[in-house]
Amino acid sequence: MDTNALMMPVECDVRVFDELARLLGGSVEEGTLDLVVPRAVVDELEKLSSGGSEEAVAASVGRDLADRCRTVDTTASYADDAVVELSDGSDYVVTNDSPLRRRLLDRGVPVVSRRGRNTLAITEP
């Protein structure tokens, strides 16, 4: 999961975990849906969460949601690079970031992103 995926509940009114359960099956709460967040994404959310702007509120909520995921260290310090580093094509990446999405699809990684008003869909490479 990347930064904007975790901010979608506030910014786009998307219930990310519910949508992922619908698309992929399983449940975060029951531990049958393993969601991974790079440490660089958590760091970015922490930086963005200071202040009172809507972005800061979304980042704060995203940071709380990240606590429900497994945090993984990478060699990359930039969040998008960390997401790419972790992607190997066998799992999905959740992002609403167009440039990152293109990078992932070019690498053969399926991407879950927002479709419609508040739903998610899978794009296969």
UniProtKB/TrEMBL annotation:
CDD domains: PIN_VapC_AF0591-like (cd09879). Gene3D superfamilies: 5'-nuclease. Residues 1-117 form the VapC9 PIN-like domain. It comes from the Archaea. This is Twitching motility protein PilT.
